[in-house]
Specification:
The protein is of the alpha/beta class and 326 residues long. The chain has eleven helices and six strands. α8 links the parallel β4 and β5. The structure holds zinc ion.
C-alpha cells in the first residue's frame, strides 16, 4: 500500500515537472513573428506574393495573418500572445540623413545578421522536425562568415549566439555617437527586437564602417506549401538604396543561375520595408533563403552540400558586388 502511494506521488511529481518543462519551452521557443522585422505590420504575412510575376505593392491587403503562428504547437499559443509587442510605433517616415552614406566604400568588413535568436525563434514547420529558423540562420551565417574570411574579408556577426547588449547600453552608445534614438522603437520589451538589432548595427558601423549587411532568414507560407525558392529584400528609399539594390540584384542573378529556382527580388519602399533593410546606415539586404513550409526546400535546408553551395553563391555575389560598387 505504502509503495503504491509512493508510486502515485512519484507519478504526480513527474507530471508536474513535465508540465513545467513544457511551459518553459513555450516561453523560450514560442512561435516567431517574421513581422517583428516589419514596422507597424504585426499581422502581415512577410512571404509576399506567391508568384514571381506578381509585383508587391503598398496597397496590397494584408495576407494570411501570422502564418508562422499557424504552424506552432498548441502549447505555444500563450507565449505568442505574451511576446507579441503592442503596436505603439508612431507613424514612420524616413529620417533626415545624418550619417555618411558613402562610409561603406573602402570597407571590406561584412556584417552578417543571423535572423532571429534569443527569445525570438523565427518560423518553423512540420518539415523542420522541431528546428526553428534561428538555428538554421545561425548555422548558415557561420558558414558564410568562414567562407568570406577565406576570401579575405573581415566579418562581424551581429548575433553571436552568446550575448547581446541591452537596450540601455545600445541607447547610450548611440547617443554618444550623436545618433537619434527613438525610445518607442527600441523599448519593445522584447529581447533582440529588430530595432535593437539595427541600432546596434549602426552603432558598430559608426565606429568601423561596414561594406554591407546581409540578414539571413528562412521563409514560411503554410497556406501555399508549393511555394519555394529565394526572396531578396532591399529598401529603395534610404541613404544606401542604390548600393543595396545593386547587391540584391547581383544575389538574385547568382541564386537564379546557380540553383534554377524561383527567385524574387523585392525593392520595397520605406513604409513597406523590413526594419533591418531601411534603418541600417549601410548597403543592406535581407535574404529569405528557402521556404520551411515547402518539403523540398525544407530538405535542402538540412543538406550540407546545398548549404555550402548556397553560401558560396552568396560569397560569389558579394565578390561581384565589391568589384562593382562605386
Ligand atoms: Zn525570419
Amino acid at each position: 500500500m505504502k509503495s503504491l502511494r509512493a508510486r502515485f506521488i512519484a507519478i504526480i511529481l513527474t507530471a508536474i515537472l513535465a508540465a513545467s518543462l513544457i511551459s518553459c519551452a513555450a516561453t523560450v521557443s514560442g512561435p516567431g513573428k517574421e513581422s517583428l522585422y516589419r514596422e507597424g505590420e504585426i499581422e502581415t504575412d512577410p512571404a509576399g506574393p506567391a508568384t514571381e510575376t506578381e509585383l508587391p505593392t503598398d496597397t496590397e491587403p494584408a495576407a494570411v495573418p501570422a502564418t508562422e503562428t499557424d504552424t506552432a504547437p498548441a502549447t505555444d499559443t500563450g507565449a505568442a500572445t505574451e511576446t507579441e509587442p503592442a503596436d505603439t510605433t508612431p507613424p514612420d517616415v524616413p529620417p533626415e540623413i545624418n550619417y555618411d552614406v558613402n562610409a561603406h566604400l573602402g570597407s571590406n568588413t561584412v556584417l552578417i545578421d543571423a535572423g532571429h535568436g534569443y527569445a525570438d525563434p523565427g518560423c518553423t514547420s512540420k518539415y523542420l522536425g522541431g528546428v526553428y529558423e534561428m538555428t538554421i540562420t545561425y548555422d548558415m551565417a557561420c558558414l558564410l562568415r568562414d567562407e568570406l574570411n577565406k576570401r579575405g574579408y573581415q566579418t562581424v556577426m551581429l548575433r553571436d549566439g552568446e550575448s547581446f547588449p541591452n537596450e540601455g547600453e545600445i541607447a547610450s552608445r548611440a547617443r554618444a555617437l550623436g545618433m537619434t534614438v527613438k525610445e518607442n522603437n527600441i523599448n519593445e520589451n522584447y529581447i533582440f527586437h529588430a530595432y535593437e538589432r539595427t541600432l546596434w548595427a549602426d552603432v558598430m558601423n559608426r565606429d568601423t564602417p561596414f561594406a554591407l549587411m546581409i540578414s539571413l532568414h528562412v521563409n514560411s507560407l503554410p497556406s501555399a506549401e508549393e511555394v519555394r525558392g529565394t526572396e531578396i529584400y532591399h529598401c529603395v528609399d534610404n541613404g544606401c538604396a542604390a548600393p543595396s539594390e545593386l547587391l540584391a540584384t547581383i544575389i538574385e542573378e547568382h541564386v537564379r543561375s546557380d540553383f534554377g529556382v524561383r527567385v524574387r527580388r523585392d525593392g520595397t519602399v520605406w513604409s513597406d520595408s523590413y526594419i533591418v533593410t531601411k534603418w541600417t546606415e549601410m548597403p543592406s539586404v535581407l535574404v529569405e533563403m528557402a521556404y520551411s513550409t515547402n518539403p523540398d526546400d525544407a530538405k535542402l535546408l538540412f543538406d550540407e552540400e546545398w548549404r555550402k553551395e548556397y553560401v558560396d553563391t552568396l560569397a560569389d555575389s558579394i565578390d561581384e558586388y565589391m568589384s562593382k560598387r562605386g
